[in-house]
Design a protein that fits this description.
Elements (H helix, E strand, L loop, with lengths): L21 E3 L6 H9 L24 H15 L3 E2 L3 H9 L46 E8 L9 E8 L15 E4 L8 E2 L3 E3 L2
Parallel strand pairs: 3-6
Antiparallel strand pairs: 1-7, 2-7, 3-4, 4-5
């Protein structure tokens, strides 16, 4: 986990053991999926979409609490244990079982990365999946995780007044759209490039 020789908040590279299996969503939660939660009043209605459209585009303007509310609704609806991924689980999924890409250029919806969009979200699945078959782990929208923020991996004490977001987005350049880039933000922060995907705990 992590990367040496890059930003301080990505270092040091270190070994992590994930002790329990998990399944993670193939793509980010979409407006269509969010609408099912809104319909039963378990999630709040999202007023903004920047005029880009909804449907299969990833939800935006969701804060960390919104994302957690969705996982709780999904758990109750399905009887399965859903939650946000911890950042080590997210990074394992994003790496795709392959060497780290140098950037998101050509493989993600990020600023000046080349591809089908520039300066807006895309419907999920417009780029090839990674080695695990997962879509848009890099770019499109930055994704909330369950983890509390630490400024680097050498810091033992975590700050739960901030939560970790991962993956870069359409707004950020290619250097941010990597499996190791980390960003800490207040749980109540919303934005036009912030969404999430869900994880299901397996037996």
């Amino acid at each position: 986990m992590g990367r040496n020789g890059a930003r301080k908040n990505e270092a040091p590279a270190h070994q992590v053991t994930i002790t329990k299996p998990f399944a993670i969503a193939k793509h980010e939660v979409t407006f269509d999926q969010w609408a099912a939660c809104v319909q039963v009043k378990a999630c709040r209605s999202l007023e903004k979409d920047r005029g880009w459209g909804r449907g299969k585009r990833p939800v935006i303007y969701v804060d960390w609490h919104d994302a957690v509310a969705y996982t709780k609704w999904l758990s109750a609806k399905t009887g399965k244990p859903y939650r946000l991924p911890r950042e080590e689980e997210w990074e394992f999924a994003a790496r795709g079982g392959k060497p780290l890409p140098k950037s998101g250029a050509g493989i993600a919806n990020c600023h000046k990365c080349g591809g089908k969009a520039e300066r807006n979200t895309l419907p999920v699945g417009q780029f090839p999946g990674n080695g695990h078959g997962l879509l848009d782990m890099l770019g499109n929208v930055m994704e909330w995780t369950a983890s509390c923020w630490r400024p680097n991996y050498g810091t033992r004490k975590a700050d739960c007044k901030k939560r970790v977001r991962r993956g870069g987005s359409w707004y950020f350049n290619r250097a941010v759209s990597t499996p190791t880039y980390r960003y800490g933000a207040r749980p109540d922060h919303k934005g036009y490039d912030i969404g999430f995907r869900v994880l299901r705990e397996m037996p």
